[in-house]
Specification:
This is Sodium/hydrogen exchanger. The protein contains 19 helices and no strands. It is an all-alpha fold. Helix 5 runs parallel beside helix 8.
Length: about 425
């Protein structure tokens, strides 16, 4: 009965706040995180003596949150098909690498200077750099669709660069996971082992995806058993997730790889759309709101008052790192200054993946180190990173719209007629 009450309360509040956010033209996930913050404040006010509100210590609640992470990455893999990468030019690759490298190095450097010295300083600094290096592809795509710019040259560039960026962020996650397990600067041998594990995982996934997924899925589809293909995708995701964990990587890599392996041509477009619709319904309608609420409930708003300068510095780096990293190669490849800056702004939103990484680090105990417990920055580091994710996710779409509002108007008139911005 307790689990049912938890689900009822979370779904009602998160979906309501998500609907309000959507009505205000804001990302739904922002509303759902705010719902979690509200619940967290309510819990602090009432107290945790009421068992119903002791959610973060509930095994059922944490299981639902883990499933939310799994399905979010599975859906992310379905959204990001490999052929999208093949369409990208050298420009997109350059944008993706530089737009990830600058905030990664800057975030790591700032965190290293601000965080207190400890054996976990490197892990915490690398976490900050990784969190700032991410791009939220779903948010970016949604903005481009709304502005009728998804099929334009600049739209394709942004999507291609963002997809590459997200794939690179998963490699960073592999390294971060290894660092979280040791809490120290990896040696040369450790780095070789990490890349070896990642390479082995990618090789296994590629082999299985190329030679086994398609024939197995088509055979299962011919059986005609209701929802069997959907079950096959979940089984595939579970297998890949277990392979990732056996190799010392995080299970979300397996979920993402499963979605990526299940392409539009695995069976046919109709079956793919049907399976994707089911995954999307379960994710966005049920599990993702619970996960976002769990993140929001962990936020300490004291991060705004206790470490305001650190928070403002990270937000500034989050935007400037992406803008400079994307604008420099874009400008060198012939885009105007406004277009170049707009690419960086569009890639500045962090969204889901940053929140997932923050959640992983939280559970690994990265922010509860005894010898740095007196540091306000460490105590508020999780909340600071989540606030950066929320703020960039809210501000980036607005900035992109302002920069290319004139072009968007032309595209609406032409009904998205593929205007070339080059």
């Amino acid at each position: 009965m307790e689990t049912l009450w938890i689900i009822f309360i979370l779904l009602v509040i998160t979906r309501l706040c998500g609907a309000i956010a959507a009505r205000l033209s804001l990302p739904v996930l922002a509303g759902e995180i705010i719902a979690g913050v509200m619940l967290g404040v309510l819990i602090g006010w009432i107290g945790k003596d009421w068992e119903l509100f002791n959610l973060n210590d509930s095994h059922h609640f944490m299981t639902l949150a883990d499933l939310g992470i799994f399905f979010l990455m599975l859906l992310g893999g379905l959204e990001m098909q490999p052929q999208e990468l093949l369409e990208s030019r050298f420009t997109a690759l350059s944008v993706a690498i530089l737009a990830m490298l600058i905030p990664l190095v800057s975030g790591f450097g700032i965190a290293w200077l601000w965080l207190p010295s400890s054996e976990f300083q490197f892990a915490q600094s690398f976490f900050v750099g990784t969190a700032l290096a991410i791009t939220a592809v779903p948010v970016t795509i949604k903005v481009l669709i709304d502005m009728k710019m998804l099929k334009t040259a600049i739209g394709k560039l942004i999507v291609s660069a963002a997809v590459i960026d997200d794939l690179l962020s998963l490699i960073l996650l592999s390294i971060l996971t290894a660092i979280l397990n040791t809490g120290r600067l990896p040696s040369a041998n450790d780095i070789i082992i990490i890349f070896g594990q990642t390479f082995l995982f990618v090789s296994l996934v590629y082999f299985l995806g190329r030679w086994l997924v398609k024939p197995t899925a088509r055979y299962i589809n011919r059986l005609g058993i209701e929802e069997m293909v959907f079950s096959f995708l979940l089984i595939l995701g579970t297998i890949f997730a277990m392979i990732a964990e056996v190799l010392g990587l995080h299970f979300i890599l397996g979920a993402f790889a499963a979605g990526l392996s299940f392409g539009r041509n695995t069976i046919n477009q109709k079956v793919f759309n049907d399976v994707k619709k089911k995954v999307s319904a379960i994710t966005t309608g049920f599990l993702a709101p619970i996960f976002f609420a769990s993140i929001g409930m962990e936020i300490e708003l004291s991060a705004i008052t206790e470490t305001p300068l650190f928070l403002i510095t990270l937000i500034t780096i989050a935007f400037l790192g992406k803008i400079l990293g994307a604008a420099i190669p874009c400008y060198l490849f012939g885009y105007s200054i406004r277009q170049s800056v707009s690419v960086g702004v569009a890639m500045s939103s962090r969204g889901v993946v940053e929140l997932i990484i923050a959640g992983i680090a939280l559970r690994a105990g990265l922010f509860e180190v005894s010898d740095t417990s007196s540091s306000q920055i460490v105590e508020n580091l999780f909340s600071t990173i989540v606030l950066v994710a929320i703020i960039t996710t809210l501000v980036a779409p607005i900035g992109f719209r302002l920069l290319l509002s004139q072009q968007a108007k032309k595209n609406r008139v032409n009904d998205g007629g593929g205007n070339n911005l080059e």
